[in-house]
Amino acid sequence: MNKVQILLKFAEKITREKDVSRLLSLLSDVARDILDADRCSLFLSDMKNRTLWTIVAHGVKKIEIPWNKGIAGWVFQNGKSLIVNDAYSDYRFEKSVDLKTGYKTKNILAIPLINRKGEVIGVFQAINKLHGNYTEEDEELLTLLSGYAASAIENTALYKELNKAYKDTVLRLSHAAEFKDKETKNHILRTGLYAREIANYLHFDDELETIFLATQMHDIGKIGIPDAILLKPGKLSIEEREVMWQHTIIGYEILRGSKSKLLQIAALIALEHHERIDGYGYPYGKKGDEISIYGRIACIVDVFDALISNRPYKKAWPEEKVFEFLKENEGKMFDDDIVKAVLHKKDKLLEIKRRFKDEYKGS
Ligand SMILES: [Fe+2]
Ligand SMILES: [Fe+2]
Predict the structure, then answer these.
(1) Could you give the domains of the chain?
(2) Residues with CB under 5 A from ligand 2 (ion)
């Protein structure tokens, strides 16, 4: 196969591949075939440990080297490509990797991976050309592939950062409600952590992170409740209680209608976390399966945490009494399976409670 045929063979796969590590391994295969090399490795930099590590390496397991050692280290530090046609006579070559792997490096072509800001983020390396020496044409081809690799890596990093910022924004929004409320920041966090444990027990493996975040938004609608009611120390009148109940619907209205699955589930949780399995909850008196599994989980973790914690207006219940209460309310307030999950995860939940204590004064 000539070089154009090799490129065409891989081109379609490369454009279709969405997974970055598979894409990088594909690019390494193309590089190896097109350059007639024995193997290729793709090093990325680890800023914290000041090393270069192989995200892809043909023929060997992960290699990690100081970021200023060897040919890869030189290319990384200088941001320049390098052709070394007799590795053992080059002062920059680091023999220790060969000694460790038992491989004999003859020649190397190494290209820096450069991001959009012009920073070097890694090194693409082709080792041991099968026939002859590396040429300038090889250098150009590997530079082209390095460009693809660098932008794929950068896009993934940007995506991750965006995703993190998005989740962070969502959580900060849920803490906005807490500024007005008597609840503590850690109550919100704990409900998310408990819910994640329960979801894990119930095998919602793909949704653990979503449930963790969405549960923490359960009381976001309290933002819309007047302070005179929300912060009233004593008992609420019937009318006031009805206003208070509106926090479920307000929360739902704030969160609904988004394309994001996280916000869709959070909207359901906001709406349903005070519904009861027997239909005596609020705001709609939904029964059993009419309440989503997310709402059913949020309901029990919210009550559990309220009972087991000190609040300015009440003392914490003893642990055993709390679990008794959950059991007594199986099929009334709570879903039987979720109560069982809570009992199974009892130690984990208590550990979460101990780890994330309340911070407000007077508790
Ligand atoms: Fe609530
Ligand atoms: Fe709550």
Answers:
(1) 3-156 (3.30.450.40), 165-355 (1.10.3210.10)
(2) 219, 302
